[in-house]
């Protein structure tokens, strides 16, 4: 009976994710009225709730089956942890839609769906990691609320660029002072019992630095400063054997510099320079050659460098289009499955169709952030939004591309899904900054529409309200109504 329920659930998961995606892209492409947008966001919320309820039922009956269908202490512990997770998710939803008015509910919903997938998969892989992730979710949501409260005014965007540069350099050298080598990379810091990955937070400071540098009229000095900073960071990361973050930093730098200069030859030159640097790294560093060899032919060294990617491919093929179902696959055979390779576990048990829909959520986040950047008049805020949008997309592409053998595998995490406090906290910090910018833009538009700081007469306000109601179904700008979608 349990296996039959799991088999049926595979199709329900795909349907729920499909509804979520259709609603999200409808909101982004059609820009409906406020009332319609609210209803569609409610459909997304319903899909998230049903996804979690279905997952809870499957996990609950699996726990019962593992405990011989007896209600003992393990079952009550399971129910307690599930209640805690549900409480966190519900609290985040309520606070995000009430306390932080003017932020994007669509963006919140995308994050909630990704977090839901994360908890289900992590619980299936190892319950203790899911419980730890629940605690991290609570901490991260407290942090993002603090960020949203602090950034009710945009003073953060006026901090001097060299403060952000000092933050980048200070964080990037910490692994040399407090080393904690993991997976062959010296990119972790261990201070007594506390460990974290500084490069996750260097990304945030680096985006702010580039936005400040590019937030002025075109100057050759700006290019020199940005190039020098990315060069230093790339060299340090190469020494630390953090290839994934190095790739992300370099591509982010190239795309932002192209947006700043609008000169194609600079982009082409940067790409050629990056290719040359990759060739030099391949010649100089043995671990780079190992990664490339495993990418080209993982079967030639199946028990060595190709072991991880080979098992990832086995899992993806085993899952097929609709997956094997929860607890019906063998994802635990994949090395680092809870962090770097979690996408392979998702595809094996939820299916390739579900994996494609998951990628479409990241694409939707990217498109929405780019749309937010396009609407920004302030160059610094525009640069920050564009940088964070590119960062989200790059990180998702690099790890998913590595898992499916599209590009050489590098050790980065999948935002909001992979296990790890550093990754989750940095993703939430970026989310908080983006939502703050959306709210700032919303308040500015609201002031403009009200005639400037509430100086509009009551008669004019009534007339404006009537006009707004008349055109409610023809709104094209999502910031024209009371609250962005």
From TrEMBL:
Residues 463-474 have a biased composition (Basic and acidic residues). Its main location: membrane. GO terms for biological process: cell division; regulation of cell shape. It is found in: Membrane. Pfam families: FTSW_RODA_SPOVE (PF01098). The chain crosses the membrane at residues 12-29, 41-62, 74-94, 106-125, 131-150, 162-179, 191-211, 232-258, 264-285, 306-330, 350-371, 383-404, 416-438. Keywords: Cell shape, Membrane, Transmembrane, Transmembrane helix. Residues 446-485 are annotated as: Disordered. It comes from the Bacteria. It is a multi-pass membrane protein. InterPro entries: FtsW/RodA. GO terms for cellular component: cell division site; plasma membrane. GO terms for molecular function: lipid-linked peptidoglycan transporter activity. This is FtsW/RodA/SpoVE family cell cycle protein.
